[in-house]
Amino acid sequence: FQTEVSAKAAESGANASAQFAERMAAAGGRRGAVDTARADYLASKAIKALNDIVIEDKVSYEEYNALKAWLIKVGNDGEWPLFLDVWLEHSVEEVANAHHEGSKGTIEGPYYIPDSPELPWNGTIPMRDGEPGTPLVFKGQVRAVDGRPLSGAKVELWHADNLGFYSQFAPGLPEWNLRGTFIANEDGEYEFTTIRPAPYMIPTDGACGQLIEVAGWHAWRPAHLHFKISAPGYDLITSQLYFPGDPHNEDDIASAVKPELMLDPHDNPNGEGEIVEYDFVLDPE
Ligand code: MBD
Ligand code: FE
Fold it and tell me: Which of 33, 128, 140, 164 is deepest in the core (most CB within 10 A)?
């Protein structure tokens, strides 16, 4: 596979920035999402927090200029989506979904694409011939918090390949590789096959990688499957599911692991690879 040698942080960053701009434009640019009083309050508080750090920690001109150069580089590398989703989105998600009684969700991250191909019951997610990775049969049920099965619920899945690359962000992959939409049957059940993803390292050759290196951090996320679960009249759940024993479940760079999001895969008695069950419970709107 070509991707390993040719993927560049700036390329996936530029793609992530462009994708986000497109989705914001499609949503009407979120005009009016922040009114004047709220903008004044939040921006003043954020600016004061930074000024307090400068004063308290006696930030030098060298440090100030390093920050300025780095912020410019984040933009040039297209890494604002990556930076924000790794280091801030988990708190936004916590606030947004605190009232939910159904399944826990977690952050979306920078690599979601809407409208992935709809696949039949028991279908296999699009993948290349010989796609590396252990086959994984994934089945479960979508229900409402009152226990009613949600027939026709949409289960969108996207994940990285065995080398940690997402289609439409890294070059050289088929457009919908490892992206698909499954529709729950009359009992709210779904079943499909994919491959088990590998632990994921965020791009290290851009501005975010530079910060990680300079601060002596690591760039790893545990292996994960991304989901969006939706049904008319219910709050959409954005989630990620993880695998027990992954060395990065305890120190995810994106702080997006929760105990409720841990899978329990077993050897598949009816085939090769593994099988796992996981249900999603949605809150009414
Ligand atoms: C990912 O694949 C991801 O899920 C997050 C949250 C950040 C960077 C890359
Ligand atoms: Fe991811």
Answer: 164
